[in-house]
Amino acid sequence: MKYILCLIVVLSSQSINANSSEGTAGSVGTVTINGEVYNQVSLRPEIPIGNLGLGLDLYLYFNDDGMYWESWNFANGAAVYRTIVDKIYYLRWRHPGDNLYILAGALPSVTLGQGILVNNYSNIMEYPQVRQLGLNLQANVSGVAIELIHSNFKSATPGLIGLRGSYPIMSKLNLGVSFVTDLDQNSGLKDRDGDSYPDHYDAYPEDGTKHQEHLDLYISVQGDSNGFAAWYVGEGYGNIYDPVGTKKDPISAVALDATYALTEKVILYSQAAMLIGEIDTSRTAGSAYNNWLITQPSEGITLGWGFVPIGAKAKLGPINLLAEYRLGSRRFVFNYWDKSYDLNRVSVTADQPITRENRLYQYGELHGIYTQADLRVINLVNLGMGYQNMQGEKWDETAKQYKSGESNQTFLATIGINPKLIPKVG
Fold it and tell me: Among 241, 242, 269, 280, which has the minimal tally of Cβ within 10 Å of its Cβ?
C-alpha cells in the first residue's frame, strides 16, 4: 500500500492527459465496480514497434478492503485473454499528416475539419467505467484527403460517425465537405445489464432477467407468478419505458469549409454547417416553447444552421492562436459534437428522455466572436484559454418567447503538464 500511495503522489503532479499518442501518461481517480467505490491508479505507456504504436492502460483498483484483482485474472485461457485485451488503450499506425494514419481504441480528442460540427470530441469521458472502441482514420488518396471518425464499434448506434473529404482546387486553397451523424441519441441512456431497459427505468439495472421489483413481491405473497401479468397491468405498475415503442431518434449534419494557407504558419478559413433533424415536441409537451409554437405556425421545428464567414489560425512559436466570427440561426449550436457530447447526448428529466437535440430551441439567432489561445511553456506546461462573446436572442422560459439583445459569454481555461517528460517504454 505504501508504494501505491507514493505512485499517487507522483502521478498527481502529471497531467491526466491521453491526448498525446507518444510517451507515457498517467491518471488517478475513482471508479465504481459492482456498487463499490475504488481508487484508481494507472500508467498509460506507448510501446513503439516500427510505425505501429501500442498504447496500454496498466491500472490498479484498491480501497480500504484491499486490492481488486478481477481485472488481473490469469486463472484460465479465457481470463488471460480478457485481461490482456482489457489493457490495450489504443493502437496507432503512423502519425497525423502521413498518407495513412489510424488510431483505434481511445480517442482523447478529435476534430473534423475546422471544428464547426466536431471539435475536440472524446470517447473517454466515462473511462474506465465505459470503454469504447473508436476509430480515427486519415488517408490521402490521389490528392483527396479523407478522414473518418467512429466513436464506438462496440455499439450498433454510436454517438458519432463522421466523414470528411477535402481537395486542393488551387495552390494553397482547399475545399472540404463533411457529414456527421448520431444514429440514435436514445442509445446514450445507460443500460448496464443490456436488457433494453435503461438503468433509470430498471429496478434491477445489473440483472438482465428482471425489470421490476413487483414480481418478487407478488411471488412472496402469492407463492408463484401465476396471474402476475394481468395483475401487474391492471394495477398500473407497467414500466413507463417501452423499449419496443420507443423510436430511434437520429440527428445528422453537413458542413462545407474552405481553407487558404496565407503562410506556413497562418491559415484563413470559412465554414458553414446545417443540423438535420427536428425538435420532438412530444418530449416538450406542455412547455412554454410548445405553446409559443402554436402562436408561431411559420416557425417550424427543424434545426438550424451556423456560418463562419472568416476565421484564422496562427502558430507563433509556442503559441497557437484561433479567432473566428460566428453567425447562427435559431436551433443551432457550434461544435455540437464537443468533448462532453457523450455526457449530455441524452438525459432523463421527469422520467422523460431528453436529447441534446431537443434542447436546441433554447438557442436563438446569435452572432459574435470566438477566440482561443494555446501556449506551451518550454515544452513543460500547456496553457489553454478560450473566450466566446455572442449577441442576439435567447429563449426565455419565463417570458415564453425569444428575447433579443441578450449576451452569451463563456470563458474556459485549462492547464496541463506534458506527459512526454516521463521516459518512453522501449
Answer: 242
